[in-house]
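chain below, 264 aa
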Amino acid sequence: MERRNRNILVVLIGIVITVAMLSSFGLGLFAPETARIQLPTPAASQSPAPQGGEDGYIRVDVTPETVQNIIARTLTRPDSYGRSVTIEDFWGEGSSGVTRAVVWVDGGWTHTTATLPGGAVRHSIVGREQFWLWYEGSGAVLTGPAQAGDADLEGQRIPTYEDVLSLETERISSAGYEEKEGQLCIFVELEPDHLGYVERYWISVDSGLLTAAETRLHGQLVYRMSADAVERPVPEEADFRLPDGTVLHEPASAVPTAAPAPAQ
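prediction:
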């Protein structure tokens, strides 16, 4: 009898150990795979807030609470591209100042050529934690160490989606999907600041770039940034050289390929 009880005890201990091991290691074999976020494609712009999911993905609503996480997890800025950006400042009574910039980005380098409202042309190149800044027609080049985000240098005011990621979540009053300039975008609006300014941002789902931004004061537009379609990779005419001809970076698209050997 005692031996039979001992055998039953051994069996029970074995069952407990087996259950513990399954709890620690085996649940992943039977649990469904964690759902992955999927944004709508540009072609799906007729459905600005898609629901449901398939193939292990879920399409999520963009809300003030989720928008920063969605941007960080799903959008990727291209490594090489070029585009034109227009920045407008409205000073009241219909007057405005317009800055037009051409931006080339390649391999961590950024070259921005900005034509300012007065006609002056300002260049800036940022790369390898260094910046170079000069005005066209002048050989004087200002240089120094660059920090993260210095691609928008010396007041060119071309925001990036990192500006949205750095916002305090409680300042975001509205977020969702919107079509802007023919592109499906993630839209973010902020609460008015202490002066009453309201900022709005549109980030392209296709390119991962911030494609538009505006600031309003008591409903009046005071600042607007808009960008043309992105050219990928950076165009062949892009260069990253200083006024004296020093080449800081050579884009892959600008490097000539070897000519094929002549046929024998």
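The first strand starts at residue 36 and ends at 37. Helices lie at 2-30, 67-74, 161-165.
thats it, cya
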